[in-house]
């Protein structure tokens, strides 16, 4: 290895080397997707393959045949191990190469090996591969094609070597590469679970199946490749560090934290303190990226993951003696380390700092008091932390249950979780409807309010204006007495409300809250979203003017147009559900829905796509029901009666003993809490706009109803008009015009390809005088520029045909700027000598920074270093001559033949 080819060392160089390796092999570079996935079935992006999941499932068009990426990922399933082992993280970067129905097992394995040994320079004697025990093909490739000692190919079970992103979805057997830190232990007793000895660094998944909810595997339409290499692990190996944390990717963060603490530096710290430093460093990367990707702290979903990570980091700061806020300055270090790979970090730096600072301050306050109280409890040497004690910590001090569990665990104690749940329930039952002021430091503010105040009575079925009292106010996640114009976001709880809170798929209402305070100042709050937490309704928005205080009486006014648009889509959803049953399958059941102001989405269980003609029939049926102007009948009745009448219950909803039944007479009857039109005629029109698959056995239909149909149609109408003007055609004639153009273009392309080939052949024929006899063989090794790869191959074959059975032809040239194309063609006598065109061309292509191969008699390759073409041709000539058993013929130096004109010139030497 020359000094120019030293293996990469820094994290940045490793990222680059990986991407370069695969882009040189035809992979499209795809930037990292957000940590917030476009996939409702997962909370966060957990692997490099996640953004490609719909592509693997055939639900989305592939971006290219091959792709490569560095994907930021977060996994929290092993959070307890973070900082305690050498390799666990919440945040990590995954380097990946992907094939979507293109290359498969053998190529993926060979490239993984080449990258690991030749680019990363890992000693082949230190590598071990695991394979799925039933995957004999992978074993054969490792031991045969790659030549790995069979002792170092280890069969593993399904738990270890069958990979899937979750319980359902694309999956397949995998093969992992491990690096051996203690090769002196020999090959006899290889245990890949020995973390001290082996680091798994590259996982190759042969993704060929889809698993449905019943665990049944069906083959995917294509065989795909999904791989993942842990950047931090490869950095640890190449930098020779004892763990991932001491690499240049993370160590500067630990150093920065140590400096802010009473510890002198990381290496002077005790093992526990080092663990805290590792946790803080890990979590600071995670939270910076999460906020940069738009997550804000909350008590739900990914907002809660963020909150939990921030709190863990802060608590470990506390443990190592940091008493001041430290997360915000740490963002500077994260940005410095990572912004060149993730430029978004710099754009969002201010937002990230603000969010972390606020959340940290809030939590520090909580922490001080909670830890003090927990310390007192621990002093009494209890056998465990009781449910009441854990609840007191949560309720009075805002101390999250997980934290109590974690601290108790550090003292070897358990926590009575059932007792905690019982105490929570008791308090819920004692909920008062009066205004409360919750400790501002309390973490679960909205949950706490919901528990104390109970469900908000809803008056919005009958009226869209109501008078109501403010019973709760939350600003920046903390309960307050007063909110002001200027507070970024305010959440308001009312004694009763006419605003519909998001539920049953229907979005929350929009509108305003208005009041005049005693000082005479007008308050106006724009309500931008309405959410329900355990039945308690929170009106979210901003104060356009004035002040809002607990106890104020306000006028709540729902935006009528928004409400009307939502109910148009809600009733349309019921009609669609029924149409599906009548047209597609009576057994269809709902799997989820979204009822928005300007669209609806309906997910349902169905093993096959709905056809275009079924879509048309459903659309007609629905619009027929709309034209009938059927008056809806909404009533309450016992669940038993609703069942007797045949009302359909919605997926995932909880119902009480008394249920609300929405009846579209003669069409459908469903249990539903949503708001609806009075008559189907109010819907106006429904247009079904899309049908797709969202998961195995789950389909989705999207539709627009009412005024949204116009919004949907307008741009399409406009495009149609413009095309009509351009083609001077009526809308109904456009398709035929485009088809005619496509046919014309196809013919023209064919003619162009034929001329290119003819030109290449002419150039090739002009090279025949350059052939040199070599015993019974005819050698022709020449440069031919400006010829496309396909035409070069035709030219190579034509030359072999002309020169006869002893022909050995190698052509190489710059096919287009910066691109090298090579071809080798051998006549049968040459092949009989044991020479393989594929092997020769592969070796030559390497010399021009590329690769390729093919059959023994004809093979093709590409490269990216045109300046090396002449040297490669000289080498090729020498290799051929040697292989054919004689010294190289006294050929002229390779000539450039860049055009038909120059190809005709007599060579200057030879
Ligand atoms: N998806 C596989 C993994 O996460 C390979 O990238 O390990």
TrEMBL record:
GO terms for biological process: alanyl-tRNA aminoacylation. Keywords: Aminoacyl-tRNA synthetase, ATP-binding, Cytoplasm, Ligase, Metal-binding, Nucleotide-binding, Protein biosynthesis, RNA-binding, tRNA-binding, Zinc. It is found in: Cytoplasm. Its EC number is 6.1.1.7. It catalyses: tRNA(Ala) + L-alanine + ATP = L-alanyl-tRNA(Ala) + AMP + diphosphate. One of its GO terms (molecular function) is ATP binding. Zn(2+) binds at residues 570, 574, 672, 676. Residues 880-910 are annotated as: Disordered. Gene3D superfamilies: 2.40.30.130, 3.10.310.40, 3.30.54.20, Bira Bifunctional Protein, Domain 2 (3.30.930.10), Threonyl-trna Synthetase, Chain A, domain 2 (3.30.980.10). GO terms for cellular component: cytosol. Residues 9-715 form the Alanyl-transfer RNA synthetases family profile domain. It comes from the Bacteria. Signal peptide: none annotated. Its cofactor is Zn(2+). The keyword Cytoplasm applies. Binds 1 zinc ion per subunit. Catalyzes the attachment of alanine to tRNA(Ala) in a two-step reaction: alanine is first activated by ATP to form Ala-AMP and then transferred to the acceptor end of tRNA(Ala). Also edits incorrectly charged Ser-tRNA(Ala) and Gly-tRNA(Ala) via its editing domain. Belongs to the class-II aminoacyl-tRNA synthetase family. Consists of three domains; the N-terminal catalytic domain, the editing domain and the C-terminal C-Ala domain. The editing domain removes incorrectly charged amino acids, while the C-Ala domain, along with tRNA(Ala), serves as a bridge to cooperatively bring together the editing and aminoacylation centers thus stimulating deacylation of misacylated tRNAs. This is Alanine--tRNA ligase. The lineage of its organism: Bacteria, Bacillati, Cyanobacteriota, Cyanophyceae, Synechococcales.
């Amino acid at each position: 290895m020359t000094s120019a080819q030293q293996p990469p060392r820094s994290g940045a160089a490793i990222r680059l080397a990986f991407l370069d390796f695969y882009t040189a092999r035809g992979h499209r570079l795809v930037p990292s997707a957000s940590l917030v996935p476009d996939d409702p079935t997962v909370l966060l992006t957990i692997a490099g393959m996640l953004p490609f999941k719909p592509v693997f499932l055939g639900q989305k068009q592939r971006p290219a045949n091959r792709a490569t990426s560095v994907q930021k990922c977060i996994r929290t399933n092993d959070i307890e191990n973070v900082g305690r082992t050498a390799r666990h993280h919440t945040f990590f970067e995954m380097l990946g190469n992907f094939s979507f129905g293109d290359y498969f097992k053998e190529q993926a394995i060979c490239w993984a090996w080449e990258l690991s040994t030749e680019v990363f320079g890992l000693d082949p004697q230190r590598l071990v591969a695991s394979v799925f025990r039933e995957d004999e093909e992978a074993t054969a490739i490792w031991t045969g094609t790659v030549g790995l000692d069979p002792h170092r190919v280890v069969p593993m079970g399904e738990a270890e070597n069958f990979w899937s992103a979750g319980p359902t979805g694309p999956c397949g057997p995998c093969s992992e590469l491990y690096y051996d830190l203690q090769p002196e232990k020999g090959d006899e007793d290889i245990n890949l679970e020995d973390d001290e000895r082996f680091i798994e660094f590259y996982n190759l998944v042969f993704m060929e199946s889809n698993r449905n909810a019943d665990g049944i595997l069906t083959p995917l339409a294509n065989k795909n490749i999904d791989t993942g290499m842990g950047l931090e692990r490869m950095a640890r190996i190449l930098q020779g560090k004892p763990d991932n944390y001491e690499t240049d990717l993370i160590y500067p963060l630990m150093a920065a934290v140590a400096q802010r603490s009473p510890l002198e530096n990381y290496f002077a710290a005790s093992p526990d303190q080092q663990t805290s430093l590792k946790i803080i460093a890990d979590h600071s990367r995670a939270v910076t990226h999460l906020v940069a990707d738009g997550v804000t702290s909350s008590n739900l979903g990914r907002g809660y993951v963020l909150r939990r990570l921030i709190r863990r980091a802060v608590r470990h700061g506390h443990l190592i003696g940091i008493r001041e806020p430290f997360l915000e300055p740490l963002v500077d270090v994260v940005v410095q380390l990572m912004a060149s790979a993730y430029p978004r970090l710099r754009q969002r730096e201010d937002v990230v700092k603000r969010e972390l600072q606020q959340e940290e301050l809030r939590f520090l306050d909580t922490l001080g008091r909670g830890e003090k109280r927990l310390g007192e409890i621990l002093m009494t040497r209890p056998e465990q932390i009781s449910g009441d004690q854990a609840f007191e910590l949560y309720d009075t001090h805002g101390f999250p249950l997980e934290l109590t569990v974690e601290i108790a665990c550090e003292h070897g104690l358990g926590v009575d979780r059932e007792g905690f749940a019982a105490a929570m329930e008791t308090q819920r039952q004692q909920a008062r409807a009066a205004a409360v002021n919750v400790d501002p430091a309390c973490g679960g503010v909205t949950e706490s309010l919901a528990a104390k105040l109970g469900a908000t009575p809803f008056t919005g079925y009958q009226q869209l204006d109501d008078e109501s009292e403010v019973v709760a106010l939350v600003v920046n996640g903390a309960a307050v007495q007063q909110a002001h114009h200027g507070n970024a976001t305010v959440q308001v709880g009312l004694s009763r409300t006419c605003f519909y809170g998001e539920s049953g798929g229907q979005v929350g209402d929009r509108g305003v809250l208005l009041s005049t305070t005693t000082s005479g100042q007008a308050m106006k709050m724009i309500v931008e979203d309405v959410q329900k937490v355990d039945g308690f309704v929170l009106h979210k928005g901003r104060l356009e003017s004035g002040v809002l205080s607990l106890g104020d009486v306000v006028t709540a006014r729902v935006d009528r147009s928004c409400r009307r648009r939502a109910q148009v889509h809600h009733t349309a959803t019921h009609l669609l559900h029924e149409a599906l049953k009548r047209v597609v399958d009576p057994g269809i059941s709902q799997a989820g829905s979204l009822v928005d102001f300007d669209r609806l989405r309906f997910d349902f269980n169905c093993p096959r796509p709905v056809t275009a003609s079924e879509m048309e029939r459903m659309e007609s049926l629905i619009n027929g029901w709309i034209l009938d102007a059927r008056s809806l009948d909404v009533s309450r009745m016992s669940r038993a009666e609703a069942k007797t009448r045949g009302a359909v219950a919605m997926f995932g909803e909880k119902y009480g003993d008394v249920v609300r039944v929405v009846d579209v007479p003669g069409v459908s009857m469903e249990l539903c809490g949503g708001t609806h039109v009075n008559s189907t005629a109010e819907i106006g029109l429904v247009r079904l706009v899309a049908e797709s698959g969202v998961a195995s056995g789950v389909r989705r239909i999207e539709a627009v109803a009412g005024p949204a149909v116009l919004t949907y149609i307008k741009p399409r109408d406009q495009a149609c008009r413009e095309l009509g003007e351009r083609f001077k055609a009526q809308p109904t004639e456009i398709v035929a015009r485009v088809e005619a153009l496509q046919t014309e273009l196809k013919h023209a392309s064919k003619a162009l390809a034929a001329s290119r080939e003819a030109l290449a052949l002419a150039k090739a024929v002009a090279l025949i005088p350059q052939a040199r006899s070599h015993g019974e063989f005819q050698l022709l090794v020449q440069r031919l520029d400006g010829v496309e790869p396909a035409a070069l191959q035709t030219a190579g074959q034509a030359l072999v045909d002309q020169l006869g059975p002893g022909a050995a032809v190698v052509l190489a040239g710059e096919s287009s700027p910066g691109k090298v194309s090579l071809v080798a063609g051998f006549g049968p006598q040459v092949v009989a000598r044991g020479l393989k065109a594929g092997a020769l061309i592969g070796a030559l292509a390497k010399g021009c920074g590329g690769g390729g191969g093919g059959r023994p008699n004809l093979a093709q390759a590409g490269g990216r270093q045109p300046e090396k073409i002449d040297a490669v041709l000289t080498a090729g000539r020498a290799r051929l001559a040697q292989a054919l058993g004689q010294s190289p013929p006294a050929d002229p130096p390779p000539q450039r033949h860049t055009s038909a004109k120059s190809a005709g010139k007599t060579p200057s030497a030879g």
